[in-house]
Amino acid sequence: MLKTIEYVDGVVRMIDQTKLPLESVFVDCRTIEEVGSAIKTMVIRGAPAIGVAAAMGVSLGAAAIEAETFDDFFSQLEAQCAELGQSRPTAVNLAWGIERMTRVAQENKSLPLAELKTLLRDESIKICAEDIEINKAMGRHGQALIEKGQTVLTHCNAGALATAGYGTALGVIRAAMEAGKNIKVMANETRPFLQGARLTVWELKEDNIPVTLITDNMSGFFMKKKAIDCVVVGADRIAANGDVANKIGTYMVATMAEKHKIPFYVAAPISTLDMSLSSGDLIPIEERSSEEVTSVQNQRIAPEGTNAAHPAFDVTPNDMITAIITEKGVARPPFAESLKRLAEQK
Ligand code: MRU
Questions:
Q1: What region does 226 belong to: left with phi over 0, alpha with psi -120 to 50, or beta?
Q2: Cα(305)–Cα(288) distance, rounded to whole angstroms?
């Protein structure tokens, strides 16, 4: 499996997810601004991967600062972080990654600046490695919810490519396979950006996990035929009451799952919880270019001048969610209590 993101010789290297699966090419970021641009243009995407990229971006920004004192260094770093924090609004992992890095800087303000910069680089590498361990723990908890031979529907890409490796929703699927459960996957193509068709199918095929691609409007058909046993998706931000923001179309899948009494699971690390928001209504929803709707892979499919809308995420209300799988365990309703307990658990 190719690495989603890594630090190589002072450069942050990412696989370009706008080019997959047709080409496997890498983008090298040398500055915090280049990392911000890679996040904005979806070279790297998926909430946990955005968090790791943000942390590595902050370390690149820190390395380039010329300052004599910590206060001067930190005010320059904060200005760069404010800019980076604007790159995408919905995934809370972006703010989480930046916040963790600036906290480490402040906690080590007495170090000589050269040492502090090295420490920040090492911290971002640690965040990357931790993310894989977190996903594996999530996989161990989540696979217990899946039975032998089941077919799991997933939406978007919550896989190795959306994280530092292994994945959240696809991590649960990988762990179920590793536990010998011989499951099958159905992947929604996930218009307009096609993360399901391009990325989920690509990485599951690489791992020889049986996958069937369907278009987004087919999942109801297959649920009605009892061809889907459960749904597992990732999340970009989870409010304190358990409302989940995830890729546009997730709410529609949850609605169909509820109608057909199919369990609907969300797999996400604790870093995706935003306990400061009481409900999903407060989660900012990114509006992306309407050109992503009027064209497919830069090929226009709608008449010129078509008015199109493109909210990139939607919010699934907590009462439609069977369980939320985290690295610390599985939260069940009422989520306001179970998530708080997990968030506070050491
Ligand atoms: O717009 P994207 O591709 O960044 O959206 C990604 C998703 O919605 C994922 O499901 C979510 O980030 C979870 S990734 C483990």
A1: left
A2: 17
Last residue of a domain, one of 83, 105, 135: 135
- CA 161 – ligand 1 centroid, Å: 10
CA geometry: angle 120, 123, 127, nearest 5 deg: 140
Look at ligand 1, atom 10, and give the residue with the nearest C-alpha: 234
In the 3-class helix/strand/coil scheme, how is 182-207 assigned residue by residue? CCEEEEECCCCCCHHHHHHHHHHHHC
Pocket probe for ligand 1: among 156, 189, 289, 316, the residue whose CB has the most ligand atoms within 8 Å is 156
Query: For the segment 55-112, what is each residue's pLDDT rounded down to a tens digit?
Result: 999 999 999 999 999 999 999 999 999 999 999 999 999 999 999 999 999 999 999 9
Please say whether the beta carbons of 265 and 232 come within 8 A: yes
Picking from 110, 135, 160, the residue at the C-terminal end of a domain is: 135
Q: Do 41 and 91 belong together in one domain?
A: yes
Q: How far apart are CA 288 and CA 278, in angstroms?
A: 25
298 CA to middle of ligand 1, Å? 21
Q: pTM score, two decimals?
A: 0.97
Per annotation, catalytic residue among 131, 236, 243, 274? 236
Is 131 catalytic? The answer is no
Identify the three-state secondary structure at position 253. Answer: helix
- Ligand 1 centre to CA of 182 (Å) is 25
